[in-house]
Amino acid sequence: MDFRLSEDQTTVVALARGAFERRSDPLRTAGIEATADRFDRQLWQELADSGVLGLAVPEDQGGIGLGMAEFAPALLEQGRTLGMVPLWETVVLGVLPIARYGDEKQRDTWLRRVAEGTAVLTAALEQPGQVPLHATDSGDGPRLTGVSPGVPGGHLADAVVVPARTTGGTVELFLVPTDLPGVTRHRVERTDRGIATDLELVDVPAERLGAGPEEDRLEWLLRRAWVGLAAIQLGVSQASVRQAADYVAQRHQFGVPLATFQAVAHQAANCHIDTEAMEVTFWNALWRLETGRDATAAVHVAKWWAADAGDRVARTVQHLHGGLGADITYPIHRYMLWTTQLANTLGSAAWHLHRIGGHVAGGAA
């Protein structure tokens, strides 16, 4: 496999890294964490102005018209800097399904606004394998009822992509603007100091995402959501290992750098190996998705490595920082918080390992 970035990907890295590094220093992040919405609106607008938010938006709706393979490096950069913006939520959970399954009106209404930085999107997917919302048809279109917990970025979202079970037993995707009567959003504090919402719908009119190819649309969306999470976690782990390496190289004990001690070097080496494994499984899953190959197992493998190895790396990095690792005024602890949140979003490591086992055994997990 060729791991060199394409010209488009290299450009995306430069654009995203510039925006995130300018706006995501530890002091600024601490300030955003203290706000009610936990949303860096200046960074969000900079991502829009630089074209990052419009990468996956079709050209007809004011975007650049690239795919997830080109957008994913922006998620890595967010992970490296811990930028407090709903990038994965809006682009992966919102833009991608609307661009693929939305009709012309839906695409024009929402995607152009995302590219301009004036809309936030998300999806109600926090319980993979479960569909707690139900759709009925009252004659004037579908209406949704139910509660979907832990919707990421739901407090900011202008619209939510919602999977719901129809009266016929099938699962379809719907689009629900959040300003409609019957929509209630209950805020929940997340481990990473972000905000999620328990989304409650009571007989809410919804728009069916019914255009595009006939396929399992929820599975299509979940696979890209898992790979997007793996991308963010890869960035988180790579940045935390880099910070740990810098710290043990500068911190002296007994007159020599901590990095010269064999036990320290071995732990750092294990972290490096884990991040390498996370990287290869992430790119393999993304490559399979974007080239139309079978990615059934690959997406679960990528998410399992991100959750399992990511947790291992975060704990080791905390340990290598000694007492500073327990000091919440020092920024390294944020990587642990983000890792814990990411590891348990859309399925834990054990959940994904169970799916991998079912695939290997040749049966449904």
From TrEMBL:
Molecular function as annotated in GO: acyl-CoA dehydrogenase activity; flavin adenine dinucleotide binding
Keyword Flavoprotein appears in the UniProt entry: yes
A Pfam family the protein falls into: Acyl-CoA_dh_N
Residue span(s) of domain Acyl-CoA dehydrogenase/oxidase C-terminal: 227-356
Cofactor or coenzyme needed: FAD
Sequence ranges assigned to domain Acyl-CoA dehydrogenase/oxidase N-terminal in this UniProt record: 6-117
InterPro entries registered for this protein in UniProt: Acyl-CoA_Oxase/DH_mid-dom_sf, AcylCo_DH-like_C, AcylCo_DH/oxidase_C, AcylCoA_DH/ox_N, AcylCoA_DH/ox_N_sf, AcylCoA_DH/oxidase_NM_dom_sf
This protein's UniProt keywords: FAD, Flavoprotein, Oxidoreductase
Signal peptide: none
Family, similarity comment: Belongs to the acyl-CoA dehydrogenase family.
Name assigned to this protein: Acyl-CoA dehydrogenase
